[in-house]
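PT: before anyone asks, these are the final sequences, not the draft ones from last week. 347 residues across everything. Please model them as a single complex and drop the result in this thread when it's through.
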Amino acid sequence: MNVDLERLNVLIVDDNKHMVNLIKTILHSLGVRNTREAMDGADAFTELRNFPADIVFTDLSMSPLDGLEFTLLVRNAKDSPNPYVHIIMLTGHTEFGRLRAAVNAGVTDFLAKPVSAKAIYQRIMGVIHNPPAFVREKSYFGPDRKRFQIDRLKGSLQRAHVVLEAPEENLSEDEIDKLLAG
Amino acid sequence: MGSKSEKVETIPPSNHLRAKLGLIGDMPVEMDMEALRRAEEAVAQLQESYPEWVGPDVDRMEILLNDAKGLSGEARTASLRELFDIAHNIKGQGVSFSYPLMTDIGQSLCAFLHGMKKMDDGAFSLIKAHIQAMQVVMRDRLQDAEDPLAKKVISELCAIGARIG
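LR: through. Structure below.
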């Protein structure tokens, strides 16, 4: 059976009005009726107080508060309206070096540019079907990062995966490809 | 990640979204291919009109560049900052609107502006060349990232930027 997305609340955070329009158009075409927009992380954090978002699609590079800072704030601030909200981060090729930081900030998933209707739909279905467990550690709160591990035995992967066993190392191109394959 | 001795509390996955959307238990759900088709059609329509959307942004970059030529100090920096922000947006969006050349040109321009040491006639000319390249891509609706001439132009822009930046 299909799922009706009409009741889903989605917040779009991007300072690029054309990208906001693209994502909003896709969401509305998929049946999502309730969308809000924010220009940066600070604006989005305020918006979350009034809008009970189920999913947040956020860009990475914004000012004054970027996507990483926004994610950290949502997950860890004492006055966070919803520390468990699903945060899906948009990333461009030039931002790959910041993927690990995004994982460690507490993002739920990634959406690589170019943005497509299918990729957005897949991310939505992903959080509906396979919502992550959350973990609370001394230095981290957010979705369980173990799910980003690459299962080398399976060979081909259908979801985003990252190796986190060696946090100081940069991601290899292969790992990045798998992470963004979605 | 935390050390092995660090206490870790695990909070199980929430079924909140499934319940909210009226899904019972582990009921399997498939993608609505008709909804996806509608969404892809809507995206195609947006892509069709992208040159009209982005045209004013590119024109604004040209105005900001001309302003910057006649300014100095903080006023010039502010103009170039706004120009950079527009180029950065174009870099981010071009490929999603099926204009990867816009992303490539935007990336070259951002890299140059980011590393620019002095604002002289050479720098002005190179920024102008980037803007003109974007205008040609929009005017001729060039969507093929592998277009040999376009690739050569962008390669030259990048090379000059690296040399004089």
